[in-house]
Amino acid sequence: MLLTVLDSAGVSQKVITRAQESALDHSGIIVATAVAQQVLAANTLRSGFIIQNRGSNPMYVNDLGVATVGAGSFAIAPGNFFPPDNYPLKTGAISILGTINDIFVVREW
Asked: pTM score, two decimals?
């Protein structure tokens, strides 16, 4: 759960707590090889997400822009997850790139 609290100086701070929240399913398939597609829209209320590559080829995720095979995107090997433990929460749009018809599982809360 994403909460906004005031610190001792009266400055607004965001705090993430673990709670029983409903997870939304955004799972799907790669619709075109080597073409980035949005997997999660920007969501300032997001308090977490997880992506698993269920395909048989690598996938690439970018939480700051358009996913590419090059620098700036994280590679997710088949069966692996993104983000890793203790990765900072990103509330912007997230894109994914891979091989046509490979499956990915996405949960957002």
From this structure: 0.82
